[in-house]
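sry for the spam today, last one i promise. struct tokens for design, 90 residues
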């Protein structure tokens, strides 16, 4: 089954099969299901990913990020969604 298109108007959450390990640069995200490893190199991104499920949409979650940095965060979240690190809220 193909992954759904990343949609910032939808809510997302960290996949339950993913563990985030804090690191000085941000965090390592490890998916126990598909064994993928991702480096979250920005501490604000780590915090955003941890709190995604507290927001009705990605757009709402990004509201606290300075506007000029939002494209970078959207791209990072889209990449995390494509690798099943984050998934749509149910």
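last one done:
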């Amino acid at each position: 089954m193909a992954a759904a298109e990343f949609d910032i108007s939808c809510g997302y959450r960290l996949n339950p099969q993913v563990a985030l390990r804090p690191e000085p640069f941000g965090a390592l995200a490890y998916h126990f299901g598909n064994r993928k490893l991702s480096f979250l190199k920005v501490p604000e991104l780590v915090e955003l990913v941890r709190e995604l499920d507290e927001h009705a949409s990605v757009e709402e979650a990004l509201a606290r990020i300075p506007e000029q940095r939002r494209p970078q965060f959207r791209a990072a979240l889209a990449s995390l969604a494509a690798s099943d690190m984050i998934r749509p809220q149910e």
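DSSP finds three helices and five strands in the chain. ok im logging off now
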